[in-house]
């Protein structure tokens, strides 16, 4: 593999790995703050125990997220310095804002929350929990604003051949970002919801035949996770529809590749599943099961809109952006070669369906959990906790598939041209890579992948340890915490 392929593999591996931690941190931080709010308002011990138990798991995951996230921005200088030089004036602003929010607000209030249990007034301590959780959402907002600028560049003009920021407000209110933010946050809540349902279901089943003093904790956690998962999926469906309509306007090739739509159709059918090779030049070789006119509705809210196919879009892109890469040594083997405007169709086609399918499975498990725990019932079948535990993985898979589709669907561009924006504010991925050797990229790729594998083992070990330890693992049995919310130092994280 050449430098470009290796650099893309490295960024893909580290980004997908890091994003396993991010949604759980965002969703769980808000839910834990909600649990603590319920405890402060009612004084019920089950809410205090829920806060301590789920808060411990949140902290383990947050720590791993910080460690794995640090590498992300370093990679822009390591493997993508040509990209950094081209877009740095615009891209650096939202990233700087995210850094300030993440390292100052998140870290400050998380520290106060961790060590303030027996030192701060209850309401002040609770405010720290909410400040931390809202800061995680703010951090996600700035990151998504930066990413959305790559998907739909706005608020910039060309000066000396490079994009220059002329409106930070336009970048922060980019309609692509405003659609991506609620969708991503809803995905984070779906992850946290499945996490609650799976672990709580296992604990309920584990002590189903004994008088478990913490049963109310696990049942409340399941109920909270179930309702959160259902609401999150509804928000995902609504915001996903908004994103689809923006995709139709801003990145029509991505929409066509999501359907492996070779030829333009009016109206266009939505493919449920395909049998055959979606990359085949002869579209008739692929058998699809379609919903008539649904793709037209997803694109433009009516059942008659024309949706352009890959072949027609390739012709349009060649006319706008050229048929061949520039004869530039920076492009290596691709210099002067024909540009392939078609993304990896198997990845985009199946990634889109994996995102939707696994998201629906997660919501379905939450709905089942609510049904089995209705009227104070306790599930006593062995299959349910197993299903709930396995379902923890489904929203993680859906989130990862969605991001892989989003990023690979915009190839061969690293900055996608804005159809109504400033001419010249776009960049091919092949032009963005650093001038380094394959050996250097192989070294960092192997080192980072190995490090992340080790960190993965550590996180699984710690999560498993505290999950199996249950409430007793975070609250010593001899202390009730019944008097005025006092907390021993030993309880502090």
Automatic annotation (TrEMBL):
It is a multi-pass membrane protein. Its main location: membrane. It holds the Pfam family Cyt_bd_oxida_I. It comes from the Bacteria. It is found in: Cell membrane. InterPro entries: Cyt-d_ubiquinol_oxidase_su_1. One of its GO terms (biological process) is aerobic electron transport chain. Belongs to the cytochrome ubiquinol oxidase subunit 1 family. This is Cytochrome bd-I ubiquinol oxidase subunit 1 apoprotein. It comes from Amycolatopsis thermoflava.
